[in-house]
Amino acid sequence: MTLYLNGKVVTVDGGFSIAEAFAVTDGRFTAVGSNDEIRELGGPVVDLGGRTVVPGFIDAHSHTVHVAVESLAEPNLTGLTSIAAIVERIGEVTAKTEPGVWISTTALGTPTYYFDVPDGLAERRWPTRADLDVVAPDNPVHIPTPPFWPHPAILNSAALRELGITRDTPDQPGLRIERDANGEPTGVVHGMLFYNARIPLVRQLLMSLPAKTAEARQEAIATALQTNLTHGLTTVYEGHGNTAFAPDLQGLHDAGRLPGRVVGTYDVPVGKPVDLAEWMTTVSDAAGAGTGDDRLRIHGLTVSLETPLHFGGALMSEPYLDQHDVLGNGASVLTVEQLADVARLAVQHDVRLNVLVTGDGACEIAADALEIVHRETPLTGRSWVLQHVHHVTKEQIARFAALGLVAQVCAGVDFARGEPVYVKRLPGDQWEHVTPVRWWIDAGVPIALGSDGAHPPLFDLWASLTRKDGRSGRSLLTPAKTMTRPEAIRGWTADAAVVLGVGDRLGSIEAGKLADFVVLDRDILTCPVDEIRDAAVLTAVVGGEVVSS
């Protein structure tokens, strides 16, 4: 038994109580209380020195795996500030690459949101195929669109030839090809990313890109998860778009190289020529409480209805401006009846279902479909999950609450997309209730906060409290978006654990739970709110073992 004394221990238990000390035995919390109470238990002592301790943070929409694998792209163009430097970097790789082999780089600009391009480039424009052809005449080159912002992809002439893109190739919904004065493609193409994989040209590009080895992927994932620990992020939910990487996570786990904890789901292959009833029998390991252990668990399925609003794909009740300032709307890949069929299969196979929806139009489809199934077989008590739900209405929240659903939301979205997307593109006052955390909390629905692959927990916690736009610094905080610090902390810990289905084991500092906790350099309950984004993790502990310090 190890005793941790003299701290401000934010337990995030049911009463959000504050303790002075706790004890850990065999990887679990065994007692929580005052210094005198814990000291009487006997054992080695760790003096917390008055520091604030919180449960290990849980990212309910982390995309750590995606971010890790994307980091393997070569060459890395991050932070380059001119087309000349970009071309030079690509040329260095081309010189070492056999002709005909695809070269796929990182995105242009500075992660996470790539605010600085193209205006931050010396030439103040996007590169074109003419720029890239100088150093890569015989290798197809692809500079990708980042998933966080609708910048175009850049293709050189060889890539355009490989994909069959010519002056006669028409634009399609979601795909726009820029052309020069003579009608020839410039190599600047909008919409060439995985969200649009249903488009044959996009699917052809994705299938053409060179795959990374399992060894490289696993090394990158392990590194990213270890980096998470330095930010106090001890558990992640890979609950969306990660089926392809499940073997990598399992390989790391089997080798004892999986830092932190991971809960994952399988993606329902909607929109593909698959018999879903038959497919459901192949993922029985995700049924019930799932399979695995407290380091890696597969639990449930995820069905995604649409793509993000900032790419023009979210289904809203009213049209809005897309990334090209064209009034339009997104679409759902499933109808009410089709989603109800998926939900029935989930009930039949006793599998927890996640439904990823963004627009209020898609939320209406989800509510209608789940209510149909609920009337046949009650869904209450199953804790099915809604993901994203950026543009849900108060009435829809009440309907979801009646079904016993829980929600994963990204309350830091205003930092990335507040003014240029939500204020500028949405009609009327809809920006005032993007990700309305107050409505969820007041409806009694547990909500887990998630980064969506963007910022570490403390930064996102700050962004959730202030709702500041990352470009202008303007706060877009409104009554619908307001939450207290304890509520935000709960969204990154105890409520997140509930949404992941591990609330009985993680999320709070209570006797019997796994001893995951974080020691901070300041008290995030009382410090000036703008200091929260700069708070540092001094120590991260998983199962009673120090994993970062």
Descriptors for this entry?
nine-stranded mixed β-sheet; globular; 549 residues; alpha/beta
Q: What would your notes on this structure say?
A:
With 549 residues, the chain is of the alpha/beta class. The strands form 5 sheets. Strands 8, 14, 15, 16, 17, 20, 21, 22 and 23 form a 9-stranded mixed beta sheet that branches. It has a 6-stranded mixed beta sheet with strand order 3-2-7-24-25-26, with helices on one face. Strands 9-10-11-13-12 form a 5-stranded mixed beta sheet. Strand 2 and strand 3 (18-19) form a beta hairpin. It contains 17 helices and 26 strands.
Based on secondary structure, the structural category is: alpha/beta
Strand content: 15-25%
Q: Helicity, in percent?
A: 25-40%
Biggest β-sheet, characterized? 9 strands, mixed
Q: Give the helix tally.
A: 17
Number of strands: 26
Give the end-to-end Cα distance, rounded to a whole number of Å.
20 Å
Low-confidence stretches: none
What Rg is obtained from the alpha carbons, in whole angstroms?
24 Å
Shape: globular
Mean pLDDT: 96
Secondary structure topology:
Layout lengths: L1 E4 L2 E3 L7 E2 L1 E5 L2 E6 L1 H5 L5 E3 L4 E4 L1 E3 L4 H7 L12 H12 L8 E2 L24 H5 L7 E3 L9 E3 L1 H7 L12 E4 L5 E6 L9 H9 L5 H17 L2 E6 L7 H9 L6 E7 L8 H5 L10 E2 L3 E9 L15 E2 L5 E2 L7 H13 L4 E5 L2 H17 L8 E4 L5 H9 L3 E4 L3 H13 L11 H6 L4 E3 L7 H10 L18 H7 L2 H7 L16 E4 L16 E6 L2 E4 L1
Parallel strand pairs: 1-6, 2-7, 8-14, 9-10, 14-15, 15-17, 17-20, 20-21, 21-22, 22-23
Antiparallel strand pairs: 1-4, 2-3, 4-5, 7-24, 10-11, 11-13, 12-13, 16-17, 18-19, 24-25, 25-26
Helix pairs in contact: 2-7, 7-8, 10-11
